[in-house]
Amino acid sequence: MKLGKHVSIAGGLDQAPERAIKIGCNCLQIFVKNPRGWRARKIGDVELTSLRSKIRDLQIESMVVHATYLVNLASPKAELWEKSVNGLIKDYQRAGMIEADYLVFHPGSHTGKGLKWGIERIAAALNRVLNKVSNDTILLLENVAGAGTAIGSNFRELHDIIRLVNQKDRLGLCLDTCHAFAAGYDISEMNGLNRLLNDIEEHLGLDLLTVLHINDSRHPLGTNRDEHAHIGEGYIGLKGFSNIINHKLLRDRVFILETPSFQGEDLDVKTLLSLRN
């Protein structure tokens, strides 16, 4: 099972692999800079060499980077859009530098300009990013919970973005379970999970789905509220997660927990490993 968790980079990026291994993971997700700011410090040669060595020596199977929270590729504000494009470029360059497999980002919010306008805005941004950066890291669009004017709560919207991007082979999908549940997919039951997978196959193709963010939901189905709960302590529940991680179409994907941290043993990691058939 390819299982990881979002871990801290306090003290340097090269501290993250050991934190993941310590809680029983063989994959990990990190930020490559402060996620709530635009500025980024330089990654030193010693830190970079140490990180690469630990990824290899600790046999980390997959490394995922999450983009800066401030990025909004659908923003109608010219200054914020330019900052967002440049911010994603910077994250993408750094993800390639550390040889990350994937870089996950939220598509963005059109803030009232309209869905079609926002989709075209996101695609234009991605074309600029992909033209500027050339590396082996795959960019993953993440589905969202559907609050406000956020784009990407259903897979038709994500399809409409990708079809306007020139280098489609460099894009993929990250499925967040909490977001999907909040957007109305009842993945607490097998029928709802299969409906979700059918929608992905119809609009995108399941081959684009490479990473799942595994989070329970603090809020009921279809509320559009994104608040993560520990596994089994939310409305998706243990049965739902057992179905997800053991589903024949999902078993080989990378599962990344984004649930709150524990002191010491990570009970969410332990729970998922116990649910795995």
UniProtKB/TrEMBL annotation:
<keyword id="KW-0862">Zinc</keyword>
<comment type="function">
    <text>Endonuclease IV plays a role in DNA repair. It cleaves phosphodiester bonds at apurinic or apyrimidinic (AP) sites, generating a 3'-hydroxyl group and a 5'-terminal sugar phosphate.</text>
</comment>
<dbReference type="GO" id="GO:0008270">
    <property type="term" value="F:zinc ion binding"/>
</dbReference>
<dbReference type="Pfam" id="PF01261">
    <property type="entry name" value="AP_endonuc_2"/>
</dbReference>
<dbReference type="GO" id="GO:0003906">
    <property type="term" value="F:DNA-(apurinic or apyrimidinic site) endonuclease activity"/>
</dbReference>
<feature type="binding site">
    <location>
        <position position="258"/>
    </location>
    <ligand>
        <name>Zn(2+) 2</name>
    </ligand>
</feature>
<keyword id="KW-0227">DNA damage</keyword>
<feature type="binding site">
    <location>
        <position position="226"/>
    </location>
    <ligand>
        <name>Zn(2+) 3</name>
    </ligand>
</feature>
<feature type="binding site">
    <location>
        <position position="176"/>
    </location>
    <ligand>
        <name>Zn(2+) 2</name>
    </ligand>
</feature>
<feature type="binding site">
    <location>
        <position position="106"/>
    </location>
    <ligand>
        <name>Zn(2+) 1</name>
    </ligand>
</feature>
<feature type="binding site">
    <location>
        <position position="66"/>
    </location>
    <ligand>
        <name>Zn(2+) 1</name>
    </ligand>
</feature>
<dbReference type="InterPro" id="IPR013022">
    <property type="entry name" value="Xyl_isomerase-like_TIM-brl"/>
</dbReference>
<feature type="binding site">
    <location>
        <position position="142"/>
    </location>
    <ligand>
        <name>Zn(2+) 1</name>
    </ligand>
</feature>
<feature type="binding site">
    <location>
        <position position="142"/>
    </location>
    <ligand>
        <name>Zn(2+) 2</name>
    </ligand>
</feature>
<comment type="similarity">
    <text>Belongs to the AP endonuclease 2 family.</text>
</comment>
<dbReference type="GO" id="GO:0008833">
    <property type="term" value="F:deoxyribonuclease IV (phage-T4-induced) activity"/>
</dbReference>
<dbReference type="InterPro" id="IPR036237">
    <property type="entry name" value="Xyl_isomerase-like_sf"/>
</dbReference>
<dbReference type="GO" id="GO:0008081">
    <property type="term" value="F:phosphoric diester hydrolase activity"/>
</dbReference>
<keyword id="KW-0540">Nuclease</keyword>
<dbReference type="GO" id="GO:0003677">
    <property type="term" value="F:DNA binding"/>
</dbReference>
<feature type="binding site">
    <location>
        <position position="179"/>
    </location>
    <ligand>
        <name>Zn(2+) 3</name>
    </ligand>
</feature>
<feature type="domain" description="Xylose isomerase-like TIM barrel">
    <location>
        <begin position="18"/>
        <end position="263"/>
    </location>
</feature>
<dbReference type="InterPro" id="IPR001719">
    <property type="entry name" value="AP_endonuc_2"/>
</dbReference>
<keyword id="KW-0234">DNA repair</keyword>
<keyword id="KW-0378">Hydrolase</keyword>
<keyword id="KW-0479">Metal-binding</keyword>
<keyword id="KW-0255">Endonuclease</keyword>
<protein>
    <recommendedName>
        <fullName>Probable endonuclease 4</fullName>
        <ecNumber>3.1.21.2</ecNumber>
    </recommendedName>
</protein>
<dbReference type="InterPro" id="IPR018246">
    <property type="entry name" value="AP_endonuc_F2_Zn_BS"/>
</dbReference>
<feature type="binding site">
    <location>
        <position position="228"/>
    </location>
    <ligand>
        <name>Zn(2+) 3</name>
    </ligand>
</feature>
<feature type="binding site">
    <location>
        <position position="213"/>
    </location>
    <ligand>
        <name>Zn(2+) 2</name>
    </ligand>
</feature>
<dbReference type="GO" id="GO:0006284">
    <property type="term" value="P:base-excision repair"/>
</dbReference>
